[in-house]
Amino acid sequence: MREYVTTKQEINKNSLPYNLYQKAKKFGIWNPVDIDFTQDKEDWKKLNEEQQLEVLTQFAQFIGGEEAVTQDILPMIMAVSKKGWFEEESYLTTFLFEEAKHAEFFSLFLEEIGVKDDLTHLLTPGYRKLFDETLPAVMGRLIEDQSPEAMIDAAVTYNIFAEGVLAETGYWFFHEALSSANLFPGFISGIRNVKRDEGRHIGFGTFLIQRLISENPELELFERVQQRLQELLPIAMMLTEGKEDKQVTSLGIERGKSMEFAMKQLQARLTVLSRAKGKTLEEIYNTDIALEEV
Amino acid sequence: MREYVTTKQEINKNSLPYNLYQKAKKFGIWNPVDIDFTQDKEDWKKLNEEQQLEVLTQFAQFIGGEEAVTQDILPMIMAVSKKGWFEEESYLTTFLFEEAKHAEFFSLFLEEIGVKDDLTHLLTPGYRKLFDETLPAVMGRLIEDQSPEAMIDAAVTYNIFAEGVLAETGYWFFHEALSSANLFPGFISGIRNVKRDEGRHIGFGTFLIQRLISENPELELFERVQQRLQELLPIAMMLTEGKEDKQVTSLGIERGKSMEFAMKQLQARLTVLSRAKGKTLEEIYNTDIALEEV
Question: In CATH, what class is B16-23+37-291?
Fold first, then answer.
């Protein structure tokens, strides 16, 4: 027999996931079709071929990534739902909706600036490793396995690494290369919304990991988080490595800077997560650490 | 290797699922926390015990149902995603979000009128049969099996039967018993939004079935739809049967009337579906039949 949560008890309104869910219903409903890309179309023509390729490479990775994670978050929603965590499940429905919307946003932008080429070849080996192998494997496992270990691995890979390190590094690129040069105002306004949505996603992942660490003190899950991130490090190296020797890219980004930024992000995430051990679930539920960036 | 849709091609903006997705982004973002239940609380006190029980029985079934289907739609999103149907997947992310929101809506209403009892015992055997056994089985199968037959069975059970027949009959009850008597204005305003969301859900299910029938003419899928509905009929009988002999319920609903309404709904759905055979996918994509109620 199925267990029903909502026929038995009220929603826990003090819980962090419910809080994130409420924020998502307010801020996560922006609509990509409302964005005006008129100036972006003009800006696109101003870039030389090398610069266009540099932008397109970032775009291809983002759009493919958003499409991939829309698929990959599904087993996590299933896992949370099987556990009867109604507040978490409610929040994750907005998370999924937002991922699809992000893919739509990038797709509409490419259409508006007139790029009709197949960009699949711009997905690099490091990227393929993460999105074709690592992520589907660690997320797909949740369909059968809702153990704390499986859920920790999933949240670290998806929320902390893919969103908290890689996507954040992508936003940093867009800021450094485009926003600073006053290029693509429509795109930049959309990316602000994407970044805010992702702030909630990372907040959720951080909360979930903290919850699991706190509820299972005997499992040494923080050590597992560290180990998992260690395993992901080579992928981060592959992803941020440039193919060329030039010290500065066509858009003026210093090589090595994005890796530096990525590592700083990673360190910040680890510091937050290291504080979870020994805390009660109530303390974690009521924390606002995870809401820092929302 | 994963197949990426969005790095290769533009969104098909003429497709019905994209159309539904756009509508959902406009109309499916209403927020249950914005509803004022002040008068509803007063109205609740006006009902006698028998009437309260009649309302609560409907509520328990709705809230449990919304919670259940939030879980059960996940394998369908997975199936559609595995097929690379990006427009369908995008739409279904809004569908999932809406189901969670409906469960929240019913939960907030119960909290506001001050009902704190465990309502699980009000879930009837017919209900348990459908939501504990039939739906999870037919939907769960989609995790492994994305055949046209499996998808047809899922869409018929979930969209045509649970949403198109049962939920619609529930709205009919709320209208007959509550709205007509000018009771529960907050609830009724919310249920209007729920019903509109569900109109899109049923529209999607109808489209999906039509698509599958049209793409697989050799499989006699319309016959399968009819057969599946035949199998579900006993559950419909169990669900609409009254426990008592009284001809009129405490809220003035004539026994037999809801069964009559349910059967009318079912017939209307079948008529629409019977038209799909022999049509091309383009004809179905461009139809507005499925949008009738949105």
Answer: mainly alpha
Contact B67, A4 (CB under 8 A): yes
Interface residue A17 vs chain B (CB under 8 A): no
Predicted ipTM > 0.90 = yes
A243-258 burial, b at 16+ Cβ within 10 Å, e below that, comes to eeeeeebbbebeeebb
- Residue B245 in contact with partner chain A when CB distance is under 8 A: no
Nearest CB among A60, A71, A128 relative to B1 is that of: A128
Write the residue in B8, B71, B99 that is nearest to A120 by C-beta. Answer: B8
Each residue's pLDDT tens digit in chain A (294 positions)? 888 999 998 999 999 999 999 999 999 999 999 999 999 999 999 999 999 999 999 999 999 999 999 999 999 999 999 999 999 999 999 999 999 999 999 999 999 999 999 999 999 898 999 999 999 999 999 999 999 999 999 999 999 999 998 899 899 999 999 998 999 999 999 999 999 999 999 999 999 999 999 999 999 999 999 999 989 988 887 876 665 567 788 888 887 888 788 888 888 888 888 887 778 877 877 655 444 444
Q: Using CB atoms, pick whichever of A9, A89, A97 lies closest to residue B70.
A: A89
Tell me the shortest Cα–Cα distance from B103 to chain A, in angstroms: 7
Q: Which residues on chain B are in Cβ contact (under 8 Å) with A2?
A: 68, 131-132, 136
Cβ pair A69, A102 in contact under 8 A: no
Domain A16-25+37-291 has CATH 1.10.620.20: yes
Contacts of A119 in chain B (CB under 8 A): 7-8
CA distances from B126 to A15, A54, A153, B131, B195 (A): 34, 60, 40, 9, 23
Of B6, B82, B96, the CB nearest to A64: B6
B70 touches chain A (CB under 8 A): yes
HSE, side-chain direction, 13 A CA sphere, residue B290: 30
Please give the single-letter amino acid code of residue A191.
I
